[in-house]
Design a protein that fits this description.
Helix content: 10-25%
Radius of gyration: 18 Å
Number of helices: 3
Order of helices and strands: EEHEHEEEEEEEEEEEEEEH
Distance between the termini: 54 Å
Strand order of the largest sheet: 6-8-10-12-14-15
Shape: globular
Largest sheet: 6 strands, mixed
Strand content: 35-45%
């Protein structure tokens, strides 16, 4: 026992970590843990962390969890090597920690994030580049993307619902701010028709995430 753990501390929401390759016990433990945890995981981004000994179980685990109504958004692993799965893979070797201090500050990353990469920061995060699909960015404060934002952002991690997300081209599949989450296309907020792309700000207003053109948002302040 003790091969499976569910952690709610990471910036993605929840992470299911699997250790070892004892298939029978792994599936039993998942079943047992989900019996008491699954209700808290709804509407969260959930990742599956695997090590080198259990990568070969990736497809079975993802399918098993899907049957339990726990959709996996991405696989977390030291590297993609040995993984044959269609889901995005977050390679720990590609995880950029732009600061690790306990004090909030403004952190800057220059460059483009490709699929599977992720960045996390304590405080505000400024990215001078594009955040491509299937990449992830997290900050305890505000997020500013001076480029295209097509990956998944989480601003205000830890409960700061006053955080904002700014991007020159804001078009992610999902946005998280503090305790709030919005997805496309059900809520008709994201992935909208985009004939004229303008800088926009995502923020929480009246208990929901809304997206406002930057000019309108700044004039309301």
């Amino acid at each position: 026992m003790g091969k499976v753990s569910i952690k709610g501390k990471n910036f993605l929401g929840f992470e299911i970590e699997i250790k070892g390759s004892d298939k029978e016990n792994i599936f039993k433990e998942i079943e047992s843990l989900l019996a008491v945890s699954s209700q808290y995981m709804k509407n969260s981004i959930i990742t599956l962390k695997l090590d080198d000994t259990n990568k070969h179980l990736a497809e079975e685990l993802v399918s098993f969890l899907k049957d339990k109504e726990i959709p996996i958004s991405a696989i977390v692993s030291e590297s993609k090597k040995g993984l044959d799965i269609s889901l995005p893979v977050i390679e720990l070797s590609d995880l950029h920690l732009v600061n690790e201090t306990s004090e909030k500050e403004v952190s800057t990353f220059k460059g483009n994030l490709r699929s599977g990469q992720s960045i996390k920061a304590n405080g505000d995060l400024v990215i001078a580049g594009n955040v491509n699909s299937n990449s992830y960015i997290y900050a305890t404060g505000n997020i500013f993307v001076l480029g295209k934002l097509y990956g998944v952002p989480h601003a205000g991690y830890g409960g700061d619902n006053d955080a904002i997300i700014f991007a020159f081209d804001l078009n992610p599949p999902q946005i998280r701010i503090g305790d709030y989450i919005t997805r496309s296309p059900e809520e008709n907020v994201l992935l909208k028709k985009r004939k004229n792309v303008v800088p926009e700000v995502a923020h929480v207003e009246d208990g929901a995430i809304v997206i406002t053109p930057y000019d309108e948002w700044i004039n309301s302040k």
